[in-house]
Write a structure and sequence with these properties.
Pfam families: Phage_int_SAM_5, Phage_integrase. It comes from Namhaeicola litoreus. The protein has 4 domains: 94 residues, no CATH class; 104 residues; 168 residues, hpI Integrase, Chain A; 35 residues, no CATH class. Helices cover 49% and strands 15% of the residues. It contains 17 helices and 10 strands. It has a 3-stranded antiparallel β-sheet, covered by helices on one side. A 3-stranded antiparallel β-sheet has the order 6-7-8. Strand 1 and strand 2 form a beta hairpin. The chain is elongated, with a radius of gyration of 31 Å.
Length: 432
């Protein structure tokens, strides 16, 4: 149980009263209450003001109420896992005496994350509108939990100005030791920098090294998608359950049109339009607010001859996806990350492929299966990637893939002209 003590530690006749917060062996902090009292009115044995003076009586009442307020706040915050620090104690003292308000901008890193979460409904989002998305709020909540664990290991409460190159290195080491993927590490580091820049706008001091603390865009650690052989297996697999039949149609459609899960499952017959005699699916992507039009293919015509599948939640769809892929024997050993309920986070390992499939992988399936067959700008117009570099990073393509693509091009040209690939290569060298 936490305890509060008061001290008069000045050598002068009038001095400030110091408050001490103690709890077990891990918390023992002293701060100045900025309440002053005459030395003659302080009871050094009991650690409280004497009651022989009106000002001393008022000070005793204030200190009694302050003790009650601090202990109530401590019990609530400590049980919620909020780090208790000397700064925390000083803030609570100042809050009690109304020297600050709850709206005052703190320089504590966790406080600034919480401030963003609390103001999520009125913050400007990436679409230019007002209000952060649910997924973005969840991302900040996850960041807060992650940093609470990180601080516990360091036994230190991080301030905004502490986010420097040393912090970045310690954070990366911590994340790697815990088994987090490189991409997740960089995303969280990028989020931390965003929090610091937001605090900077509000007048909080930041490290001069903050611009160097970057959340770099890294190559996807694991490129998970359903290849053409997987899709053939799924298409040929029959299901008795109406729910699985419905989800199977969504799966096949998703692998054709390359949209994110929420955008895919929001489609209805109203998204079908005609332009210049061409039948199209038209939608506005939730992320980025980009308009996308996708022509019907013969396969899509056959799949949607009775209209779109029945709408289901993204949670149910992800669950059905795994069941469908498992029954279709999509079980190739695949490296990826899977959520561990005991550890309450994703763990990298080798799993059967069906275990790793989620709705987002359908978008990557479309891009990966069509890369090298469909012109890259057309794939980008469907997936919504702004640059070719972003698309290639998304599907994990490398210079080796480009070499293969060029070799395939030579072979196709050779077949058309009845010349060997070597002859074509030599001709191109002469031209160049």
């Amino acid at each position: 149980m936490a305890k509060i003590f008061y001290y008069y530690r000045s050598k002068k006749n009038i001095g400030p009263i110091t408050i001490r917060l103690s709890h077990k062996n891990d918390i023992d902090y002293f701060v100045n209450t900025q309440l002053f009292i005459e030395k003659t009115f302080w009871n050094f044995n009991k650690g409280i003001p004497k009651t022989t003076d009106d000002k001393a009586k008022k000070a005793k009442v204030d200190l009694t109420n302050l003790e009650r307020s601090i202990l109530e706040s401590f019990n609530a915050d400590y049980n919620d896992g909020i780090p208790i620090s000397k700064d925390w104690l000083q803030f609570k003292v100042d809050l009690f005496f109304k020297r600050v308000t709850l709206n005052s901008v703190s320089d504590i890193l966790l406080d600034n994350i919480q401030r963003i979460i609390d103001g999520a409904s009125i913050r400007r989002n990436s679409k230019g509108g007002i209000g952060l998305s649910k997924s973005r709020i969840n991302s900040y909540n996850n960041l807060k939990k992650l940093l609470m664990s990180f601080q516990k290991d360091l036994k230190k409460v991080m301030k905004i100005k502490d986010v420097n190159l040393q912090f970045a290195q310690e954070f990366k080491t911590y994340m790697k030791d815990k088994g987090y993927s490189n991409s997740y590490l960089e995303k969280k580091l990028s989020d931390i920098k965003t929090v610091c820049l937001d605090a900077q706008i509000n007048g909080i001091e930041t490290s001069i090294q903050l611009p160097k603390v970057t959340g770099l865009k890294v190559k996807n650690d694991f490129i998970i998608y359903l290849n053409e052989d997987d899709l053939v297996k799924i298409k040929s697999k029959e299901f008795k359950s109406a729910a699985h039949k419905n989800a199977k149609r969504w799966l096949l459609l998703g692998a054709m049109i390359g949209q994110r899960g929420n955008d895919l499952l929001s489609l209805t017959n109203q998204n079908i339009i005609y332009q210049h005699g061409i039948k199209l699916i038209e939608l506005v992507q939730e992320k980025g607010n980009k308009r996308v039009v996708i022509p019907f293919s013969p396969e899509m015509e056959d799949l949607l001859k009775d209209g779109f599948p029945h709408r289901i939640s993204i949670q149910k769809f992800n669950s059905y996806l795994k069941e469908i892929c498992k029954n279709a024997e999509i079980n190739e050993p695949t490296i990826g990350s899977l959520y561990n309920k005991e550890l309450k986070r994703k763990v990298v390992g080798t799993y059967e492929k069906w275990q790793l499939i989620s709705s987002h992988d359908l978008r990557r399936s479309m891009a990966s299966n069509n890369y090298g067959k469909m012109p890259t700008p057309l794939i980008m117009s469907i997936t919504g990637h702004k640059t070719e570099a972003m698309l290639l990073r998304y599907i994990g393509k490398t210079s080796d893939d480009f070499a293969q693509q060029i070799a395939d091009y030579y072979l196709r040209q050779a077949a058309l002209t009845n010349k060997s690939a070597d002859e074509l290569t030599n001709e191109m060298r002469i031209v160049n």
